[in-house]
Write a structure and sequence with these properties.
Radius of gyration: 21 Å
Number of strands: 0
Number of helices: 5
């Protein structure tokens, strides 16, 4: 039987994971939410889909262009620059969601044995994701801030993966 004695520093690990989860929510509202309200505004929806939507459903088109996620019928009517902007905003959020479970699990598991390292690496991920939002700027993937954000995210993911493996091996008394 394994008994876990948690250092008081594990509280920092928990706070880091809480802020990682909060960042997913905030970026979800701030990045694609803002882009959605900009490109799928009331005028755009009314001009392109007002009559058709009322005929089919008896109500005006939905605010924000739901259920379109960037590749649907509403998006087909966007000017190219707005379509790119909206899809880049979606990618910023989706990329974060794709990595969220891994970073949170790795941060928690690694933090069982290496709480300070897990906290630092987990915080680097949060900072990296903020920089990654520079993808929305005109230079897109060529923007240096986006590159820094991607690097910080990758380093923190690999680092927390490494300390998670090490923590598991240590708990199993392999070393």
């Amino acid at each position: 039987m394994v008994v876990l004695n948690l250092d008081k520093e594990f509280g920092y690990v928990l706070l880091t994971v809480v802020f990682q989860a909060f960042e997913v929510l905030i970026i979800g509202f701030a990045v694609p939410g803002r882009a959605r309200s900009k490109v799928f505004n009331k005028n755009f929806l009314e001009v392109h889909f007002g009559d058709e939507h009322r005929r089919e459903f008896g109500v005006p088109p939905p605010r924000g262009g739901y259920p379109d996620m960037g590749t649907g019928r509403y998006s087909d009517k966007l000017p190219y620059a707005e379509w790119v902007y909206f899809n880049k905003a979606q990618r910023v959020h989706y990329n974060l969601i794709e990595q969220a479970a891994s970073i949170m699990v790795f941060t928690l598991i690694g933090g069982l044995q290496y709480p300070i390292a897990a906290t630092v690496l987990g915080a680097l991920f949060i900072i990296g994701r903020i920089f990654f939002c520079a993808y929305l700027l005109p230079k897109g993937s060529e923007d240096i801030l986006r590159s820094i954000g991607a690097l910080l995210g990758d380093v923190s993911l690999l680092g927390t993966f490494g300390i998670s493996v090490a923590a598991g091996l240590k708990i199993c008394e392999v070393f």
